[in-house]
Write a structure and sequence with these properties.
Blueprint: H1 2-20, E1 33-35, E2 38-40, E3 50-54, H2 71-80, E4 85-91, H3 92-96, H4 98-101, H5 105-111, H6 115-124, H7 133-146, E5 150-157, H8 180-193, E6 200-204, H9 216-233, E7 238-242, H10 244-247, E8 266-271, H11 280-283, H12 286-306, E9 311-316, H13 325-340, E10 344-347, E11 356-357, E12 360-361, H14 380-386, E13 404-409, E14 414-418, E15 425-428, E16 436-438, E17 444-446, E18 452-454, E19 463-465, E20 476-478, E21 484-490, E22 493-499, E23 505-508, E24 527-531, H15 544-547, H16 552-560
Parallel strand pairs: 3-4, 3-10, 4-5, 5-6, 6-7, 7-8, 8-9, 9-10
Antiparallel strand pairs: 1-2, 11-12, 13-14, 13-24, 14-15, 16-17, 18-19, 20-21, 21-22, 22-23
The chain binds 2-acetamido-2-deoxy-beta-D-glucopyranose (5 copies).
Length: 562
């Protein structure tokens, strides 16, 4: 008991401390709308969705975790982990079957024999245990709202339970549990119920359409109908449309745009996991698989950005134990793309464990960012990596004049910067990144200075030089993944940018460019990301100690000329 109390106090203290730190800014200017490929607030400024999925669509229809922590603690935990939004799932029948929706949380758990969960929710959330299921769902939404967390209501399935398979009767319009009229009724009820609840910023019409009945004509017929119904019941929310084949395929939208009577609210969503490509990542060469999978992604959904639609990766994730090689390799490729395209996203999942999933009580979720007892993060280093993607690199409302590149390494979620004025180069938080420019002559220069990145022979640190016309100052992106940065260090030998064990930037022999499926090139994977974030390299403050001598004005002018 004493231990538990201690941890509770300690945990509350952490929450208190983290509430003092400026993590995510409260989102102002709701509701959201779209401006070409961007999601923007009332002032027209970009709001990047950095969401986490929270499950409430399983048999008990109760948001997971309420048996582990008070709802307000969970909401605050979401904020302290840097997320600004939750994709909260719901089963259609919660909205359409009044005898289900009016069951209390206690009754629902009782009917499934989940007696321990009853006692635990009673202890952690006494104000919720005897609410009806629909009121309990609303209580989770309000708690998120009180903590400035945006919510996307995601109709995940019809019949409550784990999702998804081709033959579960929930896959496509006309399936056993998927009556299109009932679906429109349910969407309308949820849209109406949350009309005026300002933190509910979007509704995902239906998760992962799939199965033998799926076809493009019915997709347009029903998705447009569902979209109109939601919009007329609640014109504030973004209307989010899933693709076919488990939300992997939106290719058909290329030549047949979604046709609805309203504008500025439609967002398309896509899902992308390691297992979306079976075990390709572990059986193949990571460069070749990444190149192939990303090409496929661009032709099935990524093209939408160029067509002016926002694309929300509403599910991605990995086994956070780090033991699944397929997942690990996929994630490095995913993070590169997500940074480069500056996508909106929702991690699968918040859930550390479920009350009941697929017949197992208390099942642990290794894709969950929280651990089994919803107390600590499962993998702090993954969260650190993910934090690189939580704020936008560019978009409306961010400086339009300070366009530069950052050099991002997915493996660490870090960017290349200088520790001191003349190097060495190292990895650090992307918010402190140098501003680089990649010139048509293929040099990587510090913007506004004469310095450029130069290769040395294999094993030596990469460095900054002033003579930028020789071959060792020219960089190409090579291999199928296009993530290896190479340079000709000397006659006939080329090297790749890499890191050593201290995160110092070095050049090394290029690793596993093709064929080999045994080795992992991730330490040599970098992306040049367009950014308009304000950058530190144009501000001398970091180098005050070095510049604090006579003549610093001269030196500074010299360094920042051009
Ligand atoms: C509502 O749910 C209950 C309990 O599962 C079920 O018995 C009933 O048939 C459902 N009602 C409708 C109209 O689907
Ligand atoms: C869009 O829908 C409207 C009304 O439903 C119809 O009149 C119009 O022709 C459609 N436009 C396209 C491009 O299909
Ligand atoms: C956390 O995830 C990373 C991959 O991002 C993995 O390398 C590491 O082993 C994991 N750590 C733990 C403690 O599970
Ligand atoms: C390095 O040398 C090769 C062969 O001469 C050439 O094809 C390549 O473009 C060079 N790379 C750079 C970055 O200049
Ligand atoms: C990393 O840093 C430690 C401590 O400064 C040093 O002893 C070690 O040699 C460095 N490793 C490499 C690969 O440079």
């Amino acid at each position: 008991m004493g231990r538990i109390t201690f941890f509770k106090i300690f945990f509350n203290f952490l929450i208190f401390v983290s509430s003092l730190m400026p993590h995510t800014k409260p989102v102002m200017g709701l509701p959201l709308s779209t401006n070409a490929r961007w999601i923007v607030n009332e002032e027209g400024q970009r709001v990047k969705l950095a969401c986490v999925n929270w499950v409430a669509h399983l048999e008990d229809m109760v948001a997971e975790g309420l048996s582990k922590q008070p709802v307000d603690i969970i909401s605050k935990k979401i904020v302290s982990m840097g997320f600004n939004c939750v994709r909260l799932t719901w089963p259609l029948y919660l909205a359409t079957n009044d005898s289900l929706a009016s069951l209390t949380v206690r009754q629902s758990l009782q009917s499934l024999g989940l007696l321990e969960s009853i006692a635990a929710i009673q202890a952690n959330n006494p104000s919720i245990i005897d609410l009806s299921l629909i009121k309990a769902y609303q209580a989770a939404v309000s708690s998120l709202g009180e903590n400035n967390v945006m919510v996307i209501l995601d109709n995940h399935i019809s019949k409550p339970g784990w999702c998804c398979s081709n033959f579960d009767g929930n896959g496509f319009f006309g399936d056993q549990y998927f009556n299109p009229d009932l679906w429109v009724t349910g969407l309308t009820r949820m849209a109406t119920m949350f009309n005026g609840v300002s933190n509910v910023v979007g509704m995902s019409l239906r998760n992962e359409l799939r199965g033998p009945k799926q076809n493009v004509n019915d997709w347009y017929r029903y998705m447009q109908k569902g979209a109109e119904a939601v919009h007329s019941a609640n014109p504030d929310v973004l209307v989010i449309l899933s693709g076919l084949s488990y939300d992997k395929d939106l290719s058909f939208v290329r030549n047949r745009p979604v046709n609805v009577t309203f504008t500025g609210k439609i967002v398309l969503e896509v899902h992308w996991y390691g297992f979306s490509d079976g075990s390709a990542w572990v059986t193949g060469n990571p460069n070749q698989v990444c190149g192939r999978v990303v090409n496929n992604l661009m032709s099935t959904s990524g093209f939408l950005l160029d067509q002016g639609w926002p694309l929300f990766v509403s599910e991605f994730g990995m086994d956070l134990r780090g033991t699944n090689v397929n997942d690990n390799r996929y994630m490095n490729c995913f993070l590169g793309v997500a940074a480069e395209l500056d996508l909106d996203w929702a991690l699968w999942t918040l859930v550390g464990s479920y009350n009941l999933r697929e017949g197992t009580i208390g099942l642990e979720e290794f894709y969950g960012i929280l651990n089994w007892n919803w107390c600590e993060t499962r993998n702090a280093s993954f969260l650190q990596i993910l934090s690189a993607l939580q704020s936008p690199f560019k978009g409306p409302g961010l400086s339009e004049t300070n366009i530069h590149k950052v050099i991002f390494q997915p493996l660490t979620g870090l960017c290349i910067l200088r520790t001191t004025l003349f190097g060495p180069l190292t990895l650090g938080p992307c918010r402190e990144s140098e501003a680089w420019s990649y010139t048509p002559q293929k040099t990587l220069s510090l913007k506004g200075t004469y310095f450029c990145l130069q290769a040395d022979e294999a094993g030596k640190p990469g460095k900054l030089g002033l003579i930028c016309t020789d071959t060792k100052s020219k960089w190409d992106m090579i291999s199928d993944s296009k993530m290896h940065l190479t340079s000709n260090a000397s006659e006939g030998t080329y090297v790749c940018l890499d890191i050593d064990s201290n995160n110092t930037i070095v050049t090394n022999t290029c690793k596993c460019l093709s064929r080999d499926n045994k080795c992992d090139p991730a330490s040599q994977w970098f992306k040049l990301i367009d950014s308009t974030r304000s950058s530190t390299s144009t501000k001398p403050s970091r180098y005050h100690s070095i510049l604090d001598f006579q003549g610093k004005d001269f030196l500074w002018k010299f360094l920042s000329s051009a």
